[in-house]
Write a structure and sequence with these properties.
This protein has 9 helices and 13 strands. The chain has 305 residues and is α/β, with parallel strands linked by helices. It has a 7-stranded mixed β-sheet, sandwiched between helices. A 6-stranded mixed β-sheet has the order 8-9-10-11-12-13, sandwiched between helices.
Length: 305
């Protein structure tokens, strides 16, 4: 891909990052509002090593005509011609997307959109045919990110503490459960990290395990007890303003949860996996291991293997 890319930026950076990684343009212009300047800067840090990245702030994000004029002026200053520019509508709000659509249509430029469909990310490329846009390409995106990329796009910088330890520095009973889950899941996912503290909220949040299958990330709280602390932690970590709405949240317990706790988890879109056969001495029974692996992989868009 040799064309430059103009891409909208909103609260959720993942689709924008995937678009840049897949199209691999020599230059990128991130277009956002003052409210999401921090997201644009995070993306600039992630994408700026391989290409030249510029930022643009939309002054009035709810008037497509004004957006069109402001962007047209910016592209003129950059010297970007319509035939050498692709416009990405994945981020931003609807008026911004309409404004970018109008600009692309005027120059008969290509348009792209990244969507999250059935736990998979798809990129669709549209080109002008006559007076209308037509679908030119529809692809399921390959592996384009790591866990580090995902976290840094939302909350730059993170620490890895490993499995939980007691005051003497020894792996605690909870840490042993985390270790067992790590060992069970590792052969079946593309990536797994233990004891992750996102930089911006490291004092508030520690995620027991973070897993990835392709471009999908899962946040796991591992609990051997039956209190609702894990639900509260996942609700905070998985908040759209922290680690984004595309992260799948799991509560994996070594006990059966009370019905009230299950209902609370379901209400907060947390997937519960109960492993009542777990013990520190013998680990997880084989049948429960298979159920654990299947639950995690299917939630992250993969089949059981």
């Amino acid at each position: 891909m040799t064309k430059n890319l103009v891409t909208l930026v909103g609260q959720q950076p993942l689709t924008t990052l995937l678009s840049v990684r897949y199209l691999d343009p020599p230059e990128v212009l991130f277009v956002g509002t003052r409210e999401w300047n921090n997201v644009s800067r995070h993306l600039q840090t992630l994408c700026g090593k391989e290409r030249q990245v510029r930022l643009m702030e939309i002054r009035d994000p709810y008037h497509p005509g004004r957006i069109n004029q402001q962007m047209k002026k910016k592209l003129g200053k950059l010297g970007w011609s319509p035939e050498n520019t692709i416009f990405d509508m994945s981020g931003g709000n609807r008026p911004m997307a309409f404004g970018i659509y109008l600009l692309a249509m005027e120059g008969q430029s290509a348009l792209v959109d990244v969507e999250f469909v059935r736990r998979r990310h798809r990129l669709r490329l549209y080109k002008m045919h006559g007076e209308h846009y037509a679908l030119e390409e529809d692809v399921e995106l390959p592996d384009l990110i790591t866990i580090a990329d995902y976290i840094n796009a939302h909350a730059p910088g993170f620490e890895i503490d490993g499995f939980s330890r007691d005051k003497r520095g020894r792996v605690s009973s909870g840490g042993k459960f985390e270790s067992t889950l790590h060992r069970t899941l590792e052969p079946h996912v593309d990536e797994i990290l233990a004891g992750v503290r996102p930089g911006a909220v490291a004092s508030q949040i520690e995620i027991d395990l973070v897993v990835r299958c392709r471009n999908n990330v899962g946040l796991i709280e591992a609990k051997t007890g039956v209190n609702k602390a894990g639900i509260d932690q996942l609700d905070t970590a998985g908040n759209p303003s922290y680690l984004g709405r595309y992260a799948t949240k799991f509560l994996i317990t070594g006990r059966l949860l009370p019905r009230a706790h299950k209902s609370l988890a379901l209400a907060q879109e947390i997937r519960v996996v109960e492993l009542p056969g777990y013990s520190h001495q013998y680990g997880i029974p084989e049948q429960e291991e298979q159920r654990l692996v299947q639950a995690v992989r299917m939630a992250l868009g993969e089949s059981h293997r």
